[in-house]
Specification:
23% of the residues lie in helices and 19% in strands. The chain is built from 16 helices and 23 strands. It has helices at residues 63-72, 84-87, 126-135, 147-151, 189-192, 211-214, 264-273, 297-300, 326-335, 338-345, 380-389, 406-420, 436-440, 465-469, 488-498, 503-518; strands at 13-14, 27-29, 43-47, 77-79, 90-92, 100-101, 107-111, 170-174, 177-181, 222-228, 232-237, 255-259, 281-283, 303-307, 311-316, 351-353, 396-403, 424-431, 449-454, 523-534, 539-540, 558-559, 561-563. Strands 1, 14, 15, 16, 17, 18, 19 and 20 form an eight-stranded mixed sheet that branches. The chain has a five-stranded mixed sheet with strand order 10-11-12-3-13, with helices on one face. The protein has a four-stranded antiparallel sheet with strand order 6-7-9-8, with helices on one face. The longest helix is centred in the last third of the chain and has 16 residues, at 503-518. It is globular and about 70 Å long.
Length: 564
Amino acid sequence: MKKRYAILGIALTATLALTGCSAGGSTTENTVGVSGEPVTGGTLNVLANADFSHLDPTMGFDGGVNNFYRLIYRTLTTQSTGEGAEGTEMVPDLATDLGTPNADATEWTFTLKDDIFFEDGTPITSADVKFGVERGFDPALSAGSPYARILLADTDGYQGPYISGDLSSIQTPDEKTIIFSLNKSYADFPSVVGQNSFVPFPVDGDVTVTSPDKQPIASGPYRVEKYERGSKLTLVRNEFWDAKTDDVRKAYPDSFVWTFGLDGSTIDERMIANQNTDKNAIAGSVQAASISRIQTDAIKARTIDGIQGCTTYMTMNTTKENMSNPLVRQAISYAIDKTSVQAGTGGTLLADVANTMLPPTVAGQADFNLYPSEGNAGDPEKAKELLAEAGLPNGFEFTLDIRNQPKMQAQAEAVQQSLAKAGITVKFNLIDTATYYEVIGTTSQQNDAAITGWCPDWSTGATFLPPLFDGRMIFDKGNSNVAQFNDAAVNSRIDEINAMTDVNEANAAWGALDEQILALAPDVPLLYEKTVMVVGSNIAGAYSHAGFSGGIDYVSVGLASVSK
């Protein structure tokens, strides 16, 4: 997920030039290829297995949908474009700059640009931004980014504008000015207002609790023309978007068309074959089974790879029987064969084994392994010793939530098989990918454990460890602390690090806190996954963006040539 000032040390590669082509007739053509600037026009197709979680930005919070949101929505700030640190720098969007804090950074003031409009031509005002933020507090909508709920002052008991009315900690003295009052100092607040929960909606319109999830109200360069849930989504140009107000979104294609519900192997087959309109298509990372098929020079020339900058992990619900015992969680941490999980994901080309929660792309990451085993293949005998100490000499059984996709099921099966060697029986609860994060983020619907992942909102442990492990940040819905982990010493240390003013000291402290947390084993870090994507031969401007789980940045991609 998400938003950050800058990430240093991310090595991403977008490979080589592509040749533009068309079906005939005169063309507008870019001769540079994938790394060059696209032409304006045409339809860009996106092939996908699963639909987006939500079209309402207050509810979506995963890397894929965050990338999509930038095409139809704008926020006060947003990530820049480009590879590596350049792309993850935070820049102004609807706001004229990155905001002005008071002396202790507990109050932030932003000024809106001129000539910014919704898709119906209505000007976007500070009241609309305020209303958009307030919507995220509604109990029915609180599945998305948690930062407004965490940082804004006077939110105790507040349930959004439909139930509670006005939120006093957001002031709009005029149509261009918005002032946020925080409950503590927060120097990174310009990154927070780039979160999806800060998307404006017309306060004087007919926006209901549920309407934006069915028919979004665009403030970005595209609007939703047609949406068939689980099947197809079409974006066309928003005529009221003014490019002069937007330094980030290039809006090269005239339209985007997503096709959902495709089997992963079908997507790979189509991208490799590169036929007809698939020459104008992009997709997600290829499956492990397809890696051997993309090694020809012709396909390598239209292959993009990158580091996701995320951690895939198994989280254990510490409120459940057995999982509430640290000895049991430590036993599981020892028993899991991470190399098997890696193999199920596609091997070393698609993942590295993880032993820390913080990924290597986060400043201050510490290199440690509290649960070592030979070759990272698991230590079932050590696990049995800990289970016996916990009063479970014969093992036990638990239910694991997983997504119903082949890769995720392969990861789960590797976990299941390795834990069986320690006498632990794992049963699966398959959940549809489109609703997976919402389900496991609803505390009443969680089972004993889940395989999931986390990407930092910007490159600091402050956007990684607190959302996952701060016991005061457990919510009924939209809960990122899926382990429901609540340790007083960890909570206190989070506060101490957040109060540090020396960036290097804070970064080192987050790395040490990672080790402190994993000693209690609420989660098992499994992998740092990578992306390997094949694009159509008429695609230009494509690169892996670290801010969106290594996916292709939608706001920069387009076509190399367009038939007139």
